[in-house]
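Figure S4 source data
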Amino acid sequence: MKKTIILFLSLALGVMTLTAQRSDSEIKRDFEKGYRQLMKDLRTADSVTIAPLAQKVAAFRDEYRAHQEFLNKSVYPDGYDETVAKLEDQLKESQQLAESQGRIAELESQVRELSGRIDAMSDENARLIRQLDSLKTEMTALRKKVAELQDKIVKRDAAVFALVDSLFVQYDTQRLSSSDMKKITSLEKNNVLTNIKRSVNDNVSLLATTGTDGLDFPRLLDEQRKFEKNWKGIGSKLADAYISSKDRAREIAAIDTMVAGWRTQVDEAFWKALHKLFTDNNVAVAPFANGDEFHASVLRYLEEQMAGAEGKSDAEQRDAFEAFAYNTWGARVKPVWLPVMKRAGFYTDDRESEVDTKVKLWEAQTQPGNTLLYLLGAALALAVLAGLYLGMKKRTPSA
């Protein structure tokens, strides 16, 4: 009986030992299998699956921590510690990759959106460019029409005064009687006076419509002064010939007022257009409203450019000089604007010479290393200015 009990216990212990050995084997097998699957999943993870996988890695680590000592001995070569460390390293790498992929996907979405907007804007830009080209063409046509209209108004003004002159020649040479004069007056007075008023109104309207663009302002100023001179010459004669005594003063005053208002508007527009000519060529001359201010602004600009030359490179100095001397003063102001300004009494030859002298002095300063030329230019400037002063002094009557 005793032997039977011992045999039974031995068998039971053997079964228990065999069972324990299988359990360790299963633990090792499941550990290695779980590791391989997690590594495979981690390597193919994306921004959607990475979070659940992180939870699985944590659960895997916690599940086998109780068998850490056994697995460190039985799993070759890494054991529990290195195997879990590899999983966690792969998890971090996969998380970074998934984050990058998510950012890439976000950027791709933004790129698609922006590309769509760019395509839309490109279409809009193309439409605007076509519209701009059309507007440029239209603007060119409008400028041409403005020039044609200005030319026609000038010719019509000349025709009006030619008609007036021919009428007075007729009266002077044929010595018409008072009764003949009354007949002619009744037929012609409305036509002549109405045309003069219409000419002034048309010129004012042209100026108001176009502003400082499209018009030939030097010519406009010339024509206004010519019209005004003609009116002053024949206004009183027209009044004597065509206006009854009770209306004479009122009619003359009305036309005088119209011509004076036109003169004011032309002068204002002339100076604005001249200033725009400078600014369009990047020449920062201060605004001016008459000949004195114009001259002072130009001289001040030249002096400022020469005084501030040290803070600019040679190229900057040369560009500034060419913008003024070549592109503006030499190309447009001197040949086109100054002759009209002189005829209108806005400017003088002496002032022009003063500006030219400073321009030459500035040019000498812009020449790199040409100190001698600069000094000669300064001496020339002083000589010219002294000559101008002496000339003005001689022309000034003694008290």
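Figure S5 source data
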Amino acid sequence: MNKLGWVLKSMAIGFLSLLLLIPLGMINGTIKERMTYRAEAVASVAQSFAGAQSLSGPVLVIPYWQVVQVTGKDAYGRDLVRKENQMRHWLYFPKSLRLDGRLQPNIRKRGLHEVRVYELQSTLGARFDLTVPELPEGVQSVGRPYLAFAIADVRGLLGSPELTHDSLPLLLQRGLGGDLPGTGLHAPMAPVTPGQKLNFGIVLKSRLAGTESLSIAPIADSNRIALSSPWPHPQFEGRFLPLRYRIDDTGFNAEWDISSLAAGTQGQFLQSTEPAQIDNLTVGLIEPVNIYTQADRASKYGILFVLLTFVGFFMFELIKRLAIHPIQYGLVGLALAIFFLLLLSLSEHVEFWIAYLIASVACIGLLGVYLASVLKSRARGAGFAVMLALLYAALYGLLISEDNALVLGSLMLFAILATIMIVTRKIDWYALGTANASES
């Protein structure tokens, strides 16, 4: 082949590499689509079961009625000042809060997708110490106080929660009570008088179901929260990480010790009782291996696989003077791309490492047999199969070592480039069209 032939061949290989971005992009789109189906499965379970839960409280609410002046317009558009008796609230947070809970995980299926749900069995104890204010000017009367517990999805309540006030039972009712926004429970208490000192403890025993994650707001001045579960793959998120935790094959135990000096939860609660707007500590029951994330990360190395294989072919063709047709390049590139589709489809039915092994063995075996014929030697076909096996092994190492993926990938690329440079160091590139390249 003359110099022009090598140039045209190089251009054809480059065009094929770019063309293979199309099937690789389609495969990546399929992965994104399956991730969307997974999110829809989670939403479906949350809709029919209970969503991700968030707990805030208890908060002592003392309503009062105050006469205020309200400015409006009369029928003729003139300013009108009138007096209204409006209900407002004094809110008091616990001096101390202790929650001990156990998350019992379970699996709900939606088609091919498994969604993690849980049941929280908890005992919450809180202590209040306060003095009811004297009636300020304009305050007509003080209403009956009540305890409020904000819960993101009250459908998750199982059975009948038990609330005791200094060992006496209190009746829990739906809603936060009064005109407080949000969802949850409240329990009316005995009437109080202005200037009365309140010092009491409460205990709430409950079972609460949810999907995938649980958030708890450290609402008290001093918060001690302990959670345990047999699920061995927790993810601690939110604004507060556990002070102590243990994770092993039998599950996890985690403890938080949070002061109101370190958390702005009380101020946020005064502004809004919506869980999304309050700082929480969060525990998620995550998958040990997210197959769609792994498949997505693997597919991003697809073009690198194609380029490395094509470079290997080109070097072999250059050194051994064995012509390889562009169509054969293309078929090998498509086989490499199909690997990622096989990986995705198989991983939805078996464990990820098994899917990876089956897909890689299938593709390596196919390419080994095909290349033995293309390169006119079983030894050469086996050599390329070994090279591909090393590439797939290196990719799997990158996938399971997320924290070290960058350094491992950099070392792999450096090793490949160094090998190519050493093998081709004596080639006379100017003499390709007139003489054989010098052997290493």
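The radius of gyration is 33 Å. DSSP finds nine helices and 17 strands in the chain.
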